[in-house]
Amino acid sequence: MKKIAIFASGSGSNAENIIRHFASNNQISVDSVFCNVADAYVLTRAQKYHIPTFVFDKKELIDPDRLLKQLQERQIDFIVLAGFLWLMPPHITNAYTRRIINIHPALLPNYGGKGMYGMKVHEAVIAAGEKESGITIHYIDEHYDKGTVIFQARCDISQADDPESLAQKIHALEYEYFPKVIEETINKF
Ligand code: GAR
């Protein structure tokens, strides 16, 4: 059994969708959810499915003897970032080369980098008058939004779209593709 740890910082609708996707898979399982925000809704979502949750702070993340150790003790094979907003430190990216998968709500390399997350991305895309946006699923390295792209999907932006309606279109793409792409990526490893 390959074990996934999901890292998330917010609502966790993608995390929940991934948990549901793998609930019936007997080769890949979601082992746990790691969260850096004590009252994030993702924790409630994970608990609903009896998935263990862990809240951590920056010290634990950057100390090689703490969070990484915990992941290794739990025998985590893959890390999935589903709306996780901190940069992964090098000791974790090195220990999990090509085994950390992130989703970004735009077509990287555009609209990525530090501070570009969630609604901020959609606001920037709409403000720039883009005619399309999409999702990027990519490996994580020690830089924001720079790892090798695994998959992209696109959606049109109409005159009537605003950041909220674009967010809905992007979430629909995320729910459709992210679990499948995670599964394919793990199976290919
Ligand atoms: C998702 O749209 C994800 O792509 C984005 O945060 C949202 C989390 O939603 N991630 C980033 O912006 C990373 N830079 P969720 O908590 O409902 O899954």
What would you note in describing this structure?
This protein is an alpha/beta fold and 189 residues long. It has a single domain (2-188), classed as Formyl transferase, N-terminal domain (Rossmann fold). It contains 7 helices and 7 strands; from the N terminus they run βαβαβααβαβαββα. It has a 7-stranded mixed sheet with strand order 3-2-1-4-5-6-7, with helices on one face. β1, α1 and β2 form a beta-alpha-beta unit. α1 (13-22) packs parallel to α7 (163-188). The mean pLDDT is 97. The structure holds glycinamide ribonucleotide.
- Can you tell me the CATH class? Alpha Beta
Low-pLDDT runs: none
Structural class: alpha/beta
Helix content: 25-40%
SSE order in H/E notation?
Answer: EHEHEHHEHEHEEH
Number of strands: 7
Quick summary of this structure?
With 189 residues, the protein is α/β, with parallel strands linked by helices.
Can you give keywords for this protein?
189 residues; alpha/beta; Rossmann fold; seven-stranded mixed beta sheet; 38% helix; globular; binds glycinamide ribonucleotide
What secondary-structure arrangement, pairings included, does this model have?
Layout lengths: L1 E7 L4 H10 L5 E8 L5 H8 L4 E3 L2 H5 L4 H7 L4 E4 L8 H6 L4 E5 L14 H9 L4 E8 L9 E8 L6 H26 L1
Parallel strand pairs: 1-2, 1-4, 2-3, 4-5
Antiparallel strand pairs: 5-6, 6-7
The structure holds glycinamide ribonucleotide (GAR).
